[in-house]
DNA sequence: TATGAATGAGCATTCATTCAT
DNA sequence: TATGAATGAATGCTCATTCAT
């Protein structure tokens, strides 16, 4: 019995290992080419597996893709959640938040781009997926829901930090939802510039810049 | 002679009309599906022409796509240029700029998304295109150059307005490039939210919000 | 009445002129590209007419093609027929025959190649059903009359000349059909070498060579 | 280990078998329709494979075509080379040469026709191919070179045999190049008659005929 | 009559996915 | 389990031919 368990365990470990390997390969390809232009052949070659093997780990190209963005959100969310718990000022929390989101966007720029931007694709993929979900018992909650939940969680953290700042008097009495939207937009927009790049910023510089402008704005303050 | 001319003119008008019609159809499809997923069959059906006819007006799927983004930039640029010339305050100019860019992003959201976001695709398309350009005498300058020039022009207007505001003392002594980057990011990011939408904003509301936050920031100003 | 006739005549002349013009253009294109690779667009452009106009003079691409080869045979045949009537020796007639056929092949090399070689194409063009082919034991399809007649006429002239030579004792007592076949083959084969060209021959040189070898062979004659 | 090897070997054999099968099918179609008119659908159907499968064995229609003519030349060349080594008279060697070339032309008439005659097509195909060759490491030498080399080899054998005959006094003191050209032309021309066929010849008859006329010519020899 | 425009029917090629071993 | 092979369904693009003026 014990032996059997160990073998199974080992087997499972190997499978997980392979899965991760495939995901890494796929991520690389997706990042390079986007969803549509990436081919299963490329992914298989990158993963050093046969195409058929890939299909034993994942049901479809779509599933691989979702697995990737699933993990992506999971990770960002973890980081962000911790920020909220710290005992620092709202301003400082904001800085950390900007830093973590930014560094994720930076690291996984291309994946993030696909997630944020290929809306119609996502819609299509999600739609089909949600239909499939009814038939199978999937290992994670139906993607669309999960998706929104994670996204919303992150947004919530922003809101909470800002609200806290307003309450402690660090921030103006702004509408929390509006402010969060703006902050999200700033970060997102900053990391997803188009082809025009007038200046390159390190993550630290980016963080400082975003933080500073979000806090102070551009207008000159007139003292009484 | 006169008659001939009129007929020809009418013919030409019809051709232009058809071309516009095809472009509109293509834009709709591209907006729905992105570049790769859009098929010529769909575009043809949407345009109510046969596929072969589409190919009499445009050389390739790529060409249609570029024609669309060409027009897009051309239009935004026109609007923006006028803002700069007005005699209002920098603050007011900024508001108009935000409004115009925003309304364009709003109207042509999906096209803009493709432009800004499908970087690898664009790269691929632009690359092939720039090779082709050498052979043919195109009606407009080589896309990549044109592309950057327009993009840069719009960015320049931002810079100028901000610089003006700094000079007149309306704005703080910020780095003009940084500020422009942030403003661009805010607008872009605001209109290209992902699937999460906590609140819908009209263009006017959006403009107010962006304008307000970019000017004032979120931090409470402490008066002496 | 008279006036009407003249106009019609003039009209007819113009039509003929145009037709010839189109044929010349088509011949050029066919010669360059063969039948399949030549497009009506190219032919139309070469002829400086619109494609639709071409279709008012000819029913189809096929018809143009046939018109060309028809004329080709007509012309060769004319030349050849005259040779036969001369009062010279068979040997001399043979030389002229070789010269004329050769110069035609030389001038219209590519057209001739198509005629002689694109058998399957010809088959298809001539409306011969490939299904019929499999059914019948005959390796060759019925070819329209004019075609065979012309071809046969030319062959006949060869035969007659050779027969004459045999009768007059100029030539050995060869089988006339065999000899004609060989002569035809030599000329044809000589002008339609593949891509390998060890040496270029002028028409005169070619004629001499062919004539000489056909008459004398390569074997050393042992005198008694 | 052994088992694995055997299976792999079997697999490879099956692959080779399939490849040959596809080639045979393609050859049949090409022979019937020429290169341009043959479609991949037809080839696939003839081969009883799906079109996509064909593309797993060959990169393109062109590649299939070249594989066929590659093999063709390879085979002819093999046969011819052996002739030269025999200890028989030049006259006898010539007969064998004529027989072998003839039987090849006879067997693969249509393929040979395409090779020899679709010059412009070949040029086009070869040209593209030679560009591609630089990029990929092909299994055989660049087609154009290989092509000429094989062709030239065959021609060389002809020359050598004739030269030998001249030296031994069997043949007249002819220009070797000229004589070879004529012989090549005769064989080629004989097997590639156009649609006119006055008489059918078996390969043996053809060989006799060609041999006899090439050796003796048609002219009556006057004995002293 | 002449023609610019329109199109149906193809065509080579690709790719996600399945099958058989 | 792993995989080489097979394929149906597309996809962008072409071209001979017809239509409408």
Describe this structure in words.
The structure is a homotetramer of 224-residue chains. The first copy, chain A, contains ten helices and no strands. With 224 residues, chain A is mostly helical. Chain A has two domains: 1-58, Orthogonal Bundle (Arc Repressor Mutant, subunit A); 65-216, Tetracycline Repressor, domain 2. Residues 129-141 of chain A have low confidence and may be disordered. Chain B binds a DNA duplex (21 and 21 nucleotides) through residues 7, 11, 14-15, 18, 39-41, 49-53, 55-56, 60-61.
CATH class of the largest domain in chain A: Mainly Alpha
Shape of chain A: elongated
Number of domains of chain A: 2
Distance between the termini of chain A: 81 Å
Count of alpha/pi helices of chain A: 10
Largest interface, C-beta closer than 8 angstroms, per-chain residues: C-D, 67 and 66 residues
Helix/strand order of chain A: HHHHHHHHHH
> What structural class should be given to the helix and strand makeup of chain A?
mainly alpha
């Amino acid at each position: 019995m014990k032996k059997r368990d160990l073998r199974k365990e080992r087997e499972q470990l190997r499978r997980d290992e392979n899965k991760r390997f495939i995901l890494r390969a796929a991520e690389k390809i997706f990042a390079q080419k986007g969803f549509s232009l990436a081919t299963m052949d490329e992914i298989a070659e990158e993963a050093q597996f046969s195409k058929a093997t890939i299909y034993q780990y994942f049901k479809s190209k779509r599933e691989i893709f979702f697995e990737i963005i699933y993990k992506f959100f999971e990770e960002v969310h973890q980081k962000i959640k911790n920020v909220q718990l710290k005992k620092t000022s709202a301003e400082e929390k904001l800085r950390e938040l900007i830093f973590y989101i930014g560094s994720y966007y930076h690291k996984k720029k291309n994946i993030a781009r696909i997630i944020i931007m290929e809306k119609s694709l996502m819609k299509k993929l999600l739609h089909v997926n949600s239909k499939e979900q009814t038939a199978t018992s999937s290992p994670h909650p139906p993607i669309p829901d999960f998706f929104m939940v994670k996204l919303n969680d992150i947004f919530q953290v922003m809101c909470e930090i800002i609200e806290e700042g307003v309450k402690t008097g660090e921030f103006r009495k702004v509408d929390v939802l509006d402010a969060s939207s703006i902050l999200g937009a700033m970060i997102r927009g900053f990391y997803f510039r188009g082809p025009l790049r007038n200046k390159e910023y390190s993550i630290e510089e980016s963080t400082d810049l975003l933080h500073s402008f979000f806090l102070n704005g551009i207008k000159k303050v007139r003292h009484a």
